[in-house]
Design brief:
Elements: H1 3-13, E1 18-21, E2 26-29, H2 32-44, E3 52-60, E4 65-72, E5 79-86, E6 93-95, H3 104-115, E7 118-120
Parallel strand pairs: 2-5, 6-7
Antiparallel strand pairs: 1-2, 3-4, 4-5
Amino acid sequence: MDKKQLAEFIKTLEPAADVKEGKQFAEVTVAAPLLYSLLKRLRENTDTSFDYLMCLTGVDYGQDLGVVYHLHSTNHKHSVVVKARTSDRQNPNLDSVCDIWKTAEFHEREVFDLLGIRFNNHPDLRRLFLDNSWGFPLRKDYVDDINIVSK
């Protein structure tokens, strides 16, 4: 499928998703409660077969925190970008996709460590690079008076 066909197909899988053709990939934005279900269907559906999680990235959008998933099908040779956000900056939570793609386990730990987004049902969610004395240094509102990291 090309990105236009892929966008149309994903819209049939999840009508509540905002789907558009990006410059390079079809881009899907979905509400956090619908994220896990959609990603599982994208992996298991034979028409999409997204068997490879290329990248999982955390993002601080200012008021919201989010995660961006770049998926690829090694069988069909197509790719998609899926995004989800939460507006709860005090207790940001999204569902883990470790049981869908094993590589997500490491990436989710990195996002947790640097942005503080918790992943529900993650098998080993703990800090990866920093100890607990640190805050979440990739957040836009992060201030560190000791190490003089500021914007």
